[in-house]
Amino acid sequence: MTRKKVKLAFITNDSARKATFNKRKKGLMKKVSELSTLCSIDTCAIINSPYESQPEVWPDTRGVYRVLAQFKRMPGMEQSKKTVNQESFILQRIAKASEQ
User: Fold this and answer.
1) Global pTM?
2) CB–CB of 48/55 below 8 Å?
3) N or C: which end of the chain has fewer CB within 10 A?
4) What per-residue confidence (pLDDT) applies to 1?
């Protein structure tokens, strides 16, 4: 049985929004963990929530510092090699569509 497509819109009910946030956060943390395990790579996640005073980190604070330190040691070009902003992304998509 397939799931129906979820309409992405702001959830006005506070308790429903918080419940949805917690479910999606749990799913996101699970995906990060799976990605790390399946691909044998260093990953981390930092989620700052309006519902909690401290950000939630995965795997733990030391693990996040280790991954961020590893990222900061990379040369600047290597860090931003695959980073794009919205404008450049749209321009790339337009150019690709024009070629096709």
Assistant:
1) 0.71
2) yes
3) N
4) 65
Q: Which two tokens stand for residue 5?
A: 């497509």
Are 53 and 41 in contact by the 8 Å Cβ rule? The answer is no
Q: What is the distance between the alpha carbons of residues 63 and 58, in angstroms, rounded to a whole number?
A: 7
CB distance 60 to 36 below 8 Å: no
SS (H, E, C) the chain: CCCCCCCCCCCCCHHHHHHHHHHHHHHHHHHHHHHHHHHCCCCCEEECCCCCCCCEEECCHHHHHHHHHHHHHCCHHHHCCCCCCHHHHHHHHHHHHHHC
Give Cα separations from 16 to 19, 20, 29, 44 (angstroms): 5, 6, 20, 27
Residue of 85 and 22 predicted with greater confidence: 22
